[in-house]
Design goal:
By secondary structure, this protein is of the alpha/beta class. The chain contains 14 helices and 15 strands. The radius of gyration is 23 Å and the shape is globular.
């Protein structure tokens, strides 16, 4: 099966599309038949490691299950680290994946999470229209944590002063504390109508149009969808979905005229760099996200130099011309920075026992595919002194 999926031509990738849930969890059917659906690692339909890999000529895998198609690299024994202790700091998907991997290899695992709930960036992402399935990944990791006896402590931050004491009680510490929004040094960024993407999505304030999103990456595209469609999730409303994309069972080929609705919200994405918006989005999904925004009437402006945010506008220069772009709401999607609660000195002093993974290690172009795989690989390769 592994070889079949690896070499299957892209022109026949329709088979893989239907096979995705079994990449996420090959025991899907057995778990369902046994009444254990809570423990199914659910496909979130992201396409990032399956179909996107096919069209790039890469080996098929799965974002939520990096073992897919290379199971021989993940042989485990519950006696491997029996009696040893592992502390994971952070309960986003990277930390939860690291904790599960450690428990499967015999570690007594404890997870410290500074927030009151698990999830990290996935908890934010699941609020984006079309990404509601992301909550299933958190449900799976929570169920696995209970099944494997992982000690999960929320509202428990990790500080520099915890380094020495934690290393007295744990053989290894894995730092998976993720990222926080990067705030640009634009005058006016502290005005009350200016939000970073994380606060906007979690607080879900009323939309006051016109809206300007500063940034042009995947987070900006997701945030734009949240602004426009947060009261209506196309993934759950098939009638609206079929209407927007021109799908109908009543005509030959199931195709009819697209009937998208232009949004009443005036929204503009503006960025410094020149080029496509959301260019790092997945090959098989990025075009659809961009098409949704264009149909909704979103405007895209690149190659600007931001000067100031005022109560009613975003001021920038473009091609030597000063522009005062109207804005009643401004959302900053200008990247992320790592959250690392440990000093460089402590990391050097305890090299080999403290490990950093995911966004905390590298926030540039962060995605969950890399973070989950990196966390699992880190724990898989741990060695414990006898």
């Amino acid at each position: 099966t592994n070889a079949y999926l690896h070499w299957r031509p892209a022109s026949q990738s329709g088979f893989l599309f239907r096979f995705r849930p079994f990449l996420a969890d090959p025991d899907f059917v057995n778990k369902a038949a046994q009444g254990r659906s809570r423990y199914i690692n659910t496909c979130i339909a992201c396409n990032q490691a399956c179909l996107d890999h096919v069209f790039e000529g890469k080996k098929v895998s799965c974002l939520v299950n990096p073992e897919a198609c290379e199971e021989n690299l993940w042989e485990r024994s519950s006696d491997q680290h029996k009696g040893k202790k592992l502390l994971v700091v952070g309960a986003g998907v990277a930390g939860l994946a690291a904790a599960r991997e450690g428990a499967l290899r015999g570690f007594q695992v404890t997870v410290w999470e500074s927030a009151s709930e698990i999830g990290g960036q996935f908890k934010i992402a699941q609020e984006i229209p079309g990404k509601g399935d992301y909550q299933e990944t958190l449900r799976y990791f929570l169920a696995e944590s209970e099944r494997l006896g992982i000690n999960l402590e929320c509202s428990r931050p990790f500080r520099e002063t915890d380094v020495e004491s934690s290393l007295k009680h744990f053989d290894h510490v894995v730092i998976a504390t993720g990222v926080r929004p990067q705030i640009p040094s634009i005058p006016g960024r502290d005005l009350p109508h200016v939000f970073n993407y994380s606060d906007w999505i979690q607080k879900n304030p009323p939309v006051e149009s016109p809206v300007v999103i500063i940034g042009g990456g995947g987070v900006a595209v997701d945030t734009a969808k949240h602004v426009l469609f947060k009261k209506h999730d196309p993934s759950l409303d098939w009638t609206q979905f079929f209407k927007e994309w021109g799908i109908t069972p009543k005509t030959a080929g199931g195709i009819t005229r697209k009937r998208p609705e232009r949004s009443a919200i005036e929204l503009t994405l503006i960025k410094r760099s020149v080029g496509a918006f959301g260019k790092l989005l997945g090959k098989t999904t990025g075009w659809a996200h961009r098409a949704e925004l264009k149909r909704a009437g979103v405007k895209f402006i690149d190659g600007v130099e931001f000067k100031q945010i005022t109560p009613n506008a975003v001021i920038y220069e473009r091609s030597g011309e000063s522009v005062e772009h109207p804005a009643k709401t401004v959302i900053l999607c200008t990247g992320q920075v790592p959250v690392v609660p440990v000093s460089e000195k402590a990391l050097l002093l305890h090299r080999g026992r403290i490990h950093i993974v995911g966004g905390a290690k590298n926030a540039v172009a962060l995605d969950a595919k890399r973070a989950i795989r990196e966390a699992m690989t880190c724990v898989r390769d741990l060695t414990v002194q006898k």
